[in-house]
Amino acid sequence: MSGGTLYASNGKEQFTSANPAIVQLANGADPTTGVLSVKIDSTDKQLPIQIQSRLTNLVQTHNNVLIPANTLNYSTTWIDCSKFDKIGFTIMNDSATNTYVSLLWSHDQSTNHGEETILATGNAIRRASIVDTKAQYVKVLVNNQDASAHTISTWIYLKS
Q: What is the pTM assigned to this prediction?
């Protein structure tokens, strides 16, 4: 570095081109030693963080869909669940009926890479389940195994 030598108010050399490692007197440095006074207060400390809320998303995959007797029905689009670690699922039928539900898993939003039955056949009007996320995208498969058509609504609740 070029330039002159800086001196503290006590006349001691604080910074030279030959020794740039010596800190200039600034920010309340000790005039005798040139050491900066550093005070750590509560705003400088890293504190544990309390979780204020959780990331969630509710998606209705079937909205009063009439499913014919003994027929499969798929939700229309793949749902991105990459930011979530759990999937809650609920179904509501128009009556107590034989219905099972599976989740289809995809890594590329087009190919079915896996299927997981989350609600086996049962005769309840309302049912629910929760599973861990298995891939980036998910789709709902509802199988009406009853001898008559039924109207159903389903929801996926993504949780992290």
A: 0.66
